[in-house]
Design a protein that fits this description.
The chain has one domain. Helices cover 43% and strands 15% of the residues. The protein contains seven helices and eight strands; from the N terminus they run E-E-E-E-E-E-H-H-H-E-H-H-H-H-E. Strand 5 and strand 6 (59-64) form a beta hairpin. The longest helix is centred in the first third of the chain and has 25 residues, at 68-92.
Amino acid sequence: MAFCTGISPASTSKRGLTVRAHAAKTSNIPGKGKGRVVSNQRDDVNATQFQVRLGKSTTRPVTLGFTKNNELFVGRMAMLGVAFAAIGEVITGKGPLGQLSIETGSSITDIDGAVLFLIVFNLIAALLPAKGKLVLPEDEFEARPKGSLQDPSVSVLQPKKFFGISGFGFTKENELFVGRMAQLGFAAMLLGETLLPGDLGPLGQIGFTTGVPLSETEPLLIFSILFTLFAAINEGSGDFVDE
């Protein structure tokens, strides 16, 4: 969850103590209109590129990987997959592969190729850098107006104004990170179910590894399911600009 507050450059000194605050550096995007800025706080991550030789003197650059918009979609699907795999395990007692066998009537050995593809795809999608820049709403980087830090007429009974919160949820960059973790988790979940005995899903694998019975982890289980569902469904702030 991200809350952004812009602060104009300022410096105050009292009794030898110096406090400095710097505003976030932003730049407008040509052609994107007012109210859209690019955060320069993070370097842009370019997708992996390599040259393919087409002839004796002709080469062509090939980009391997997703744009961040595409990866965001894949991450959301992975988050939904993790959440529904946990719900399905509570209902059926089996992991995602076991649940698929129940639905289709096919044994796990019959779908080895599909399982291997899912594992490799999720690992590549989660670990391979993507290209694009995050574009945030301009009001998240507005300089603080002159005067006191807080309007004395704003009380804690107005939490949004009091804490300077404009909304509830992720930025798309944070959501991209959560999606990558979900992709790694989904790949590890499939590997664990394949290697461990008993068609164990994510919950059973945690219990097998830690020795803690699932009955003692219900609050954490409920929180994890709700968190991944919210992260997958919630529309994050900002947009990715492909380059």
